[in-house]
Amino acid sequence: MVPALSLASMIFVPAAFAGPYDASAHVAQSAAAPAVNAAATMDVAVASHSARAGELIGSNCSYTTGMMARRVLEEGQDWSYVGTLEATGNNLGSMVAVPYTAPDGVNVIANELVELMSADGHLRSRLSLTGKLLEVDGVRYVVLVSFKVINA
């Protein structure tokens, strides 16, 4: 005998994203609608997952990127920033993927949150960012754990 399936047993949550999530970050905007402040926050465990998008990883190693992200999250200090991110050459000798920088040479590690921001087109916007910051061998890395788009 096969047990009946309930609606609750048929809801699937992607394994790669198990943290808190704000659905407004994925609502398509019409030209007539006012802009919505997009925001997303990720669980620390999920924030340590390396981005999968080739344009964010480049020729770097996703394994090394993920390992550095975990280290930054474990050992780093709280960090916040309001402003825009600048695209980089993504060519650190450490092979850690850092496709964007914040002022003062802070390298933003390519994690799933950066990938979400990229897919939603928010990387060129003015942002409020929070994360963890760690300096390793003279290089400053940050792992983002939340962002909010600030309307102009």
Structure description:
By secondary structure, the chain is α+β, with helices and mostly antiparallel strands. The protein has helices at 44-47, 54-57, 62-75, 112-119, and strands at residues 39-41, 77-83, 86-87, 100-102, 106-108, 127-136, 139-149. The protein is built from 4 helices and 7 strands; from the N terminus they run βαααββββαββ. Strands 1, 2, 3, 4, 5, 6 and 7 form a 7-stranded mixed β-sheet that branches. The protein has a single domain, classed as Beta Barrel (OB fold (Dihydrolipoamide Acetyltransferase, E2P)). 20% of the residues lie in helices and 26% in strands. The protein is globular.
Number of helices: 4
What is the structural class?
alpha+beta
Rg over CA atoms: 17 Å
- The average pLDDT is 74
The stretches of 5 or more residues where confidence is low (pLDDT under 50) are: 1-37
Number of domains: 1
Which CATH C-level class is it?
Mainly Beta
